[in-house]
Amino acid sequence: MKVTELKSEGLSKSYKIVIPSAIINKAIDARLTEVASTAKIDGFRPGKVPMTIIKSRFGTQVSGEVVEKQVSDSMRKLFTDKKLKPAMQPKVDFDGKPLDGSDVKFTVNLEIMPDIQIQDFSKLKFDRLVAEVKDKDINKALEDIANNQKSYAPLKKKRKSKIGDSVLIDFKGYMDGKLFDGGTAENHRLELGSGQMIPGFEDQLINLNVNDQKDVKVNFPENYQKAELSGKPATFKVTIKDILEAEKSKINDELATRMGLPDLKSLKEAIKNQIEINYKATARNRIKRDLLDKLSKQYTFEVPKTMLENENKVIWDRFEQDRKAGVIDDIDKGKKDSVLKKEYSEIAERRVRLGLLMAEIGDVNKITVTEDEIKTAVMQEARKYPGEENKVIEFYQKNPEAANAVRAPLFEEKVVDHIIGKCSIKEIKVSSEELYEDNVIADPTAKSKNKKSTKAKTNKSVKAKSKK
After folding, report:
1. What is the distance of C-alpha 384 from the center of its chain?
2. In tens digits, what is the pLDDT along the chain, a chain of 468 residues?
3. How many Cβ atoms are within 10 Å of 389's Cβ, its own excluded?
4. Pairing of strands 424-430, 125-131
5. CB neighbours of 309 closer than 8 A, spacing ≥ 6?
6. DSSP state letter for 226
7. CA pair distance 26, 32, nearest whole angstrom
8. Strand, helix or coil at 209?
9. d(CA 103, CA 97)
10. pTM score, two decimals?
């Protein structure tokens, strides 16, 4: 084959490849001979079919297969000889028709991976914040558990409903004066302030007595799960049938037993252990955040344009979806699209650059994610959906892209731990308040120049974290 370089501009490359027709025809003849040796055609014994019939019956198919293989082989040889590492799938444009019997000519356009020179991580210095678990931390956690384990009892004294009460209600929903499907229920138990119902519904049931009736007027949210109700006003005729008041569980051995532990002492020890784990994870995430900020500034290599465009589209499409759903970060409100696109473009470039850097560090240091690690992560995800664990596991088994979405963050965390292990770490004792101050879980989508915007952008991107 003959290779001619047409363009070499940064990471963008273009080559013209010519495969002589003699090579193509020779390969086609060889393949047709193979086919002839096993072809079964009525009226002929295997291996005795005339070549004219073989060519007539299989010629077009074989020619296509041979040309496709020759093109693939020539591209692989090009990449090997030129030591090229494509960043994305190369684009191939043929000159003329590749199956007309003449030389096969085509142009290969591609972007290559940047040359990343990994620097010495031992020169990086970070502080690891170490917080001691105090009795007040354990007691606060116990209070939270007791609040979550609350029960409900009849009112000791007749009064009107308030936030935190559990009310028993009947309701009928009307839209344009007519009942609508799914808007009616009887003996529905509702905790006021829980956010179980659409916005504004529960607020209008406060300060009512048993047997009171109330016309609750609300608007369904935009992009409501039922499209026919989305954004429309409705009136619910509600009757209060009963009011129960919340009773917080007492902090004692009985509470511990309900939590699956033998006594209160064991519960306190379990809480302490969990808080210590949380403290260590938070300290580690602070180091990760600072590490990614430093790496983002330290490595300024060019990133493939196509990868950047794709990432930009993913981020902007996500923003558009959130905006349509009425979910916009405070720091984004009131900004023109031109300003937002510039900010999100910076986020996309940071994400791509850090992703490429993480991949290179992992490759150089032979860091991999095992199948057992992926299975463990999938099991942890499945436990979030009690009763549907098997469906979740089956989903990941049948969808390779979903499995890759699990692999990517695991790989990133292993690479980050590898880097941290090489850095100079100084431990500093702090209070739990200081540990959590300005804490942002690290994510390559975050902007380092503005802490408030960093936190907001990070929280948004965590919802749909793409591969690094």
Report:
1. 16
2. 899 999 999 999 999 999 999 999 999 989 999 888 888 888 787 778 888 888 888 888 999 999 999 999 999 999 999 999 999 999 999 998 877 778 999 999 999 999 999 999 999 999 999 999 999 999 999 999 988 887 888 998 999 999 989 999 999 999 999 999 889 999 999 999 988 899 999 999 999 999 999 999 999 988 787 878 888 999 999 999 999 998 878 899 999 998 899 999 999 999 999 999 999 999 999 999 999 999 999 999 999 999 999 999 999 999 998 888 778 888 888 899 999 999 999 999 999 999 999 999 999 999 999 999 999 999 998 888 888 888 888 888 888 888 888 999 999 999 999 999 999 999 999 999 999 887 543 333 344 334 333 333 433 333 333 333
3. 15
4. parallel
5. none
6. S
7. 10
8. coil
9. 10
10. 0.70
DSSP 8-class letter at 202: G
Structural domains of the chain sorted by starting position, each given as residue range(s) with its CATH number in brackets: 2-111 (3.30.70.1050), 121-132+258-462 (1.10.3120.10), 151-247 (3.10.50.40)
**Residues listed for the chain:** 468
Q: Identity (one letter) of the amino acid at 134? A: K
Bridge partners (DSSP) listed for residue 242: 168
